[in-house]
Amino acid sequence: MLEKFLNKTLLKLRNRHLLVIDILLLLISPFLALLIRLDGQVDLAYYNVALIYSSVIFLGSNLFIFYRLGLYKRYWNSASVDELAKIIYIVFFAILVEIVIFVLFYNLSWFDFDRLPQSLPLLDGIFKFIIVASSRFSIRLFERLNERRKISYHGERVLVVGSGKSGTSIVQEMQRNPQLGLNPVAFVDDDTEKRGLKIRGVPVMGTRNSIPEVITKMDINKVIIAMPTAPGSDIRDIVSICRNTGVQTRTIPGIYEILDDKVRIESIRQVQIEDLLRREPVKTDIKKVEDFLKGKKVLVTGSGGSIGSELCRQIIKCNPSEIILLGQGENSIFDIDYELRKRISIVNGKQLLTNIKTIIANIRSYDRLDKIFEEYSPDIIFHAAAHKHVPIMESNSCEAISNNVKGTQNLIDLSLKHNVDHFVFISTDKAVNPSSIMGASKRVAEMIVLNAAREHRKNFSTVRFGNVLGSRGSVVLTFKRQISEGGPVTITHPDIQRYFMTIPEAVQLVLQASVIGNGGEIFVLDMGKPIKIIDLAKDIIRLSGYEVDKDIKIISTGLRPGEKLYEELFIPGELYEKTIHEKILIATNASQFIPENFSGNLELLINKRYDNDKELIKSHLKILVPEYIPDVDIHSGVSII
Questions:
Q1: Given this model, what pLDDT does residue 17 score?
Q2: Is the CB of residue 194 less than 8 Å from the CB of residue 259?
Q3: What pLDDT, on a 0 to 100 scale, did the predictor assign at position 633?
Q4: Looking at residue 9, what is its pLDDT?
Q5: String of b and e for 586-607 (b: at least 16 CB within 10 Å)?
């Protein structure tokens, strides 16, 4: 009953009420200080005049200082460390003034001040700090207790896996926002030294192996994995443990997806396949990338696509003077333009001044691109626009050449014409020993970039990597759609394997690679170990809440045109060296692998593209890319891209 009364009373206190409390308590503060100084033996007849005058004079000076320095203009229901620092500063200043007044009156023997102990102002100052701080922070204390009471009565009981910075931040937000309906009651953490400790009042009750026991003991309704830097193997293990308990499991994004380095409640989402395949975060020289892009005009082709849009998100954090979004599809360009404008105001607490320009154009149109280059004069180009779907390009070979080859040729020619400083081409592992028209067209595009770098000594380079999770047309999305339709999930071959990387990680490494080389290189991203597509399918089925074969079946349908069982990242003969970055290799002699009469044969290929003669295009590609071996033994099935 008393606690309820105090709750209601304290939470209604305002600065005018605190002023009255200050007057009452500060008036008796000198007496309390004297009482402590004299061990309770105070002769009131001897000290009464000095006490009365000192109390009134000190009160007047204190209130004047408190008011002038804004103590009565604060909202104490949400007091934090900032408010505590402000109280320390104000009270310290008030004590200094009080000491000056006391010394003056003491030396002049005014109002019997010379009868008082010289330590009185200091002791009085200590009481003042206790009075001011406790009266204010008691409001915040009861506010916090009230919030936690609401959560404990009505919120879902949450177990947080990971008690590091991210886990603590999530718990803090839950505690501060009872309307979220989440009540953090326990941590688990693999750091055994934390066991038995309390973080923000929440106990650490063991390691991941303790999860089933903690769920039962604490009556947990939801598990939140707060480990953004943990590798996918750890996430997979934790998800497996939680799945066996039947408790709902959620996670926060991986470190590559946290753009402003802050974890928020709204970041919490369902566990995705990207989380299970997450690798240990790599160290990147963010400062070097920021210095490279800051104040520059950056053009991104295909900026509405998966890679292009993520490039834009990460580039804009580096404060370029202008970012030019170039793409053919107006809807996707509209989406990334809207997203960037929404987040452009503040990133990492800093105001961004980047201009965003939106351009709808086809890279196959030389004249249209020429006008764009002339108007915007880009300093750096990231070329991510491409036709990438292997089976579709097999039956539309003229478009693969027109977009992937002619489009790249246009951009390179105009970059040379308008003196662009840096050009980065986004390639693919399918360009290595290609068996598809798409892969061969991307290999030719690599050669176009390398040839220009070699002949004109320009900082033009290529970054080559494998599949990215979650891209448009990705096998992951295909599997999810098939599961939502009740199955079956179809794979083209039980032994087929692919390299996978998350989109944010790939783009981060692309940006890192862009500042390493001097031109004419191929950078190859470390994709880790290849993943069997059938294992990927099983993981997605389980994450969707189903059992493999029991609820959703997996069937093989045969390889499609241009598909290989295994993708490669290295072309025989290319010499690869480590760079300053552990996850990026460089082919130092890449520009030497350009066949004789490259320009003439390239022109023939481009000129023949609209004859729509697939076999003719294949023969021209074979001349330019000797390692290209078209796949003739094909079967129908689902595309793996």
A1: 64
A2: no
A3: 39
A4: 54
A5: bbeebbebbeeebeebbeebbe
| Helix (H), strand (E), coil (C) string for 567-610 | CCCCCCCCCEEECCCCCEEEECCHHHCCCCCHHHHHHHHHHCHH
At residue 639, the pLDDT reads: 39
Q: 381 φ, ψ to 5°?
A: -125, 130
Q: What is the largest CA-CA distance in the chain?
A: 116
Q: What's the CATH code, domain 155-276?
A: 3.40.50.720
d(CA 365, CA 326): 13
Residues of the chain with pLDDT under 50: 1-3, 5-6, 259-260, 348, 632-641
pLDDT value of residue 440: 92
- What does residue 498 show for φ and ψ, rounded to 5 degrees? -145, 155
Task: Please give the Cα distance from 258 to 250 (Å, whole number).
Answer: 16
∠ Cα 133 136 140 (to 5°): 120
* Of the candidates 133, 131, 122, the residue with the CA atom closest to the CA atom of residue 98: 122
pLDDT digits (tens, 9 = 90+) for 186-220: 999 988 888 888 888 889 998 999 999 999 998 89
Which superfamily is assigned to 286-468+502-528+568-624 in CATH? NAD(P)-binding Rossmann-like Domain (3.40.50.720)
Q: Do residues 452 and 288 touch, judged by C-beta distance below 8 A? A: no
Rg of the chain taking only CA atoms, in angstroms: 34
Q: Which are the catalytic amino acids?
A: 430
Domain ranges in the chain are: 2-147, 155-276, 286-468+502-528+568-624
pLDDT at 375: 95
pLDDT of amino acid 631:
63
Which helix (H) or strand (E) segment holds residue 412: the answer is: helix 407-417
Q: Residue 237 belongs to what H/E stretch? A: helix 232-245
